[in-house]
Amino acid sequence: MTTESQDAAPAFGSPELRIPDALRGPLKEHIEELRQRYLDMGWGGRGGFGEKPALVVIDLALWWTKPDKPPMGSHVDPIVEATCVLLKAARAAGIPIIFTTYDYDPADPPTPHERKCTPTITPQDAGLMDLDPRLERRDDERIIRKKYASAFKNTNLHENLTTLGVDTLIVTGVSTSHCIYATARDAAHTFRVVVPKQAVGERCELLHEVNMLDIDIDLGDVMELDEVVGHIQAQD
């Protein structure tokens, strides 16, 4: 897959939350310098693939994939399309596939977090927690409805994966700095974590870049989409 230019704006996210064009190149160069410094200190080793991968698709529901539903929704079509490529490969190889979405309940009491992020969802929006139809989710593919950023917190995802004998978790979806990062963090000490570079994203370009670096040096392997597809196909 062709590597994008250091100066190119991402094909996803919210235009108003992008890095200024004049800063993008220097910032990405600095991120690569930081990566090398961590490598020199012994961080950022490769976990690699194990023998039994599973694919978890994080929060590609309409609440996030419809750009006309701010502040959560943004343009993430490239993330959905890349995830569909992985889904096709995973289905052909017969590896487990799990989706997540938010467990919205209008009866939930307010939380302290709402002082940081004003809730905009209403009972009329509940249908937006349905998965994006482009994913073509099948009846035998699990949906986990979660209250928190991590797909592991207060769910039985860990039990599901261990029951299936999974040792490698391929994490896709949104948003990089929240649910992707939190899921990778909770998975890292039990499973090998793989994050396909083109299949994760979010609204804010800067938060995406910083958290992708953090994941790659500490939690899992950030890999090119084509490389991950090749590993999945080897399971077939």
Describe the structure in brief.
This protein is an alpha/beta fold and 236 residues long. The chain is built from seven helices and seven strands; from the N terminus they run H-E-H-H-E-E-H-E-H-E-E-H-E-H. The protein has a domain of 162 residues: Isochorismatase-like (Rossmann fold).
Structure description:
With 236 residues, this protein is of the alpha/beta class. The protein has a domain at 51-106 and 128-233: 3-Layer(aba) Sandwich (Rossmann fold). Strands 1, 2, 3, 4, 5, 6 and 7 form a 7-stranded parallel β-sheet that branches. It contains 7 helices and 7 strands. The model has no long low-confidence stretch (mean pLDDT 94). Helix 5 (176-187) runs parallel beside helix 6 (205-219). The radius of gyration is 17 Å and the shape is globular.
Indicate the topology.
Elements: H1 21-40, E1 53-58, H2 62-65, H3 77-93, E2 97-102, E3 142-146, H4 157-163, E4 168-174, H5 176-187, E5 192-196, E6 200-201, H6 205-219, E7 221-223, H7 225-233
Parallel strand pairs: 1-2, 1-4, 2-3, 4-5, 4-6, 5-7
